[in-house]
């Protein structure tokens, strides 16, 4: 296909192997690649924005493959994409990619993910966007995930990317020839047993360290075709999961289960 202008970000920071592999794959296919990503680890920052302090951005081309233009930004992943779109780029990109994340972004974890939020920022601005994650925190072979992410994005663009669609791709920690087929998936519900470990600092002050233990619920959230597997279940079976997301958070439950709104606004009704 014709060369694309691609913006790439992440939440693991400018030194992460995943983003360097993704940028190299895109540049190797002849695309024009610009990286704007955090200057340090920014995982689990969600869709946070920096409002109280200035943003700084410095060139970091030397960290990436030849031909890649790169900026390291002091802000969050969402800051990075906003700054790129409204200040750093001379032309809007044809595609926004985020990742490759060092670890999974499955199920309801997408609500906390800086990787998904960076891609979502592109979707909000009307751009095709894809988030890609390696579904293991210790796997450092990103070639298969990078190639698959570019394959999916290029073919979606060639077929017509639906408006308002964000794609979330999770790739199991396997070589390309050992992966099960790519499948459309629903989001699972990922619950955690939140374990806050209580500690004491050298000055005798108490602090808490969050180290939640995941409890995978392989049932879906109720959204999406019932015949689709959940993303958690399919990745556990060795297959890459591709989940369609959107910025719209409107509840999909039965409207009949909601009480009349008039009753909610009247104190006499509430007291009965």
Automatic annotation (TrEMBL):
Gene name of this polypeptide: surE
PANTHER family given in the database record: 5'-NUCLEOTIDASE SURE, 5'_3'-NUCLEOTIDASE SURE
Name assigned to this protein: 5'-nucleotidase SurE
Keywords of this entry: Cytoplasm, Hydrolase, Metal-binding, Nucleotide-binding
Positions contributing to a divalent metal cation binding: 11-12, 43, 101
Details of cofactor binding: Binds 1 divalent metal cation per subunit.
Enzyme Commission number: 3.1.3.5
Domain (Survival protein SurE-like phosphatase/nucleotidase): residue spans on this chain: 6-192
The keyword DNA repair is assigned to this record: no
HAMAP family: SurE (MF_00060)
Entry annotated with the keyword Nucleotide-binding: yes
Catalyzed reactions: a ribonucleoside 5'-phosphate + H2O = a ribonucleoside + phosphate
Family: Belongs to the SurE nucleotidase family.
Cofactor list: a divalent metal cation
Pfam families per UniProt: SurE
Record function comment: Nucleotidase that shows phosphatase activity on nucleoside 5'-monophosphates.
Subcellular localization, as worded in the UniProt entry: Cytoplasm
Record InterPro entries: SurE, SurE-like_Pase/nucleotidase, SurE-like_sf
